[in-house]
């Protein structure tokens, strides 16, 4: 996890606790690395591993969504929001800043509209803080 994750704990906690039925919130880079994560479930085991699996899966999803978006003649071809409803819950993936995404897992009792609204509000308020600089292969000086 990136060092900046400590700065995001309160932000992710606010989202997770303001929408009942939230299981996990992850901020990730476009290449699938976890930047920050939070789970409101007391004593949750394996939250870091869950975040890493979600981040890796999200990299593929955002790529697929981008390919679909490119088929629309108007717009910039970038993915803004993906919602997947599965047995037992929902998965949300939202563009959250340059090179960063916000992902949420929620149980099936979640208010889907409220979750989408809170995610949009969070990204609008602090989207510039939810970004990941492009990685470089150049050695650090």
TrEMBL record:
SMART domains: Robl_LC7. Gene3D superfamilies: Dynein light chain 2a, cytoplasmic (3.30.450.30). Residues 9-106 form the Roadblock/LAMTOR2 domain. Pfam families: Robl_LC7 (PF03259). It comes from the Bacteria. PANTHER family: SERINE PROTEASE INHIBITOR RV3364C. This is Roadblock/LC7 domain-containing protein.
């Amino acid at each position: 996890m990136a060092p900046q994750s400590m700065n995001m704990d309160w932000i992710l906690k606010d989202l997770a606790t303001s929408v009942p039925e939230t299981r996990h919130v992850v901020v990730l880079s476009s290449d699938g690395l976890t930047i920050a994560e939070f789970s409101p479930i007391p004593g949750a085991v394996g939250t870091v591993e869950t975040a890493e699996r979600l981040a890796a899966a999200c990299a593929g999803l955002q790529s697929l969504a981008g390919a679909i978006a490119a088929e629309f003649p108007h717009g910039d071809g970038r993915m803004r929001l993906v919602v997947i409803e599965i047995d037992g819950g929902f998965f949300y993936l939202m563009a959250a800043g340059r090179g960063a995404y916000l992902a949420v897992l929620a149980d099936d009792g979640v208010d889907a509209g409220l979750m989408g609204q809170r995610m949009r509000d969070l990204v609008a308020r602090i989207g510039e803080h939810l970004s990941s600089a492009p990685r470089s292969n150049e050695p650090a000086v």
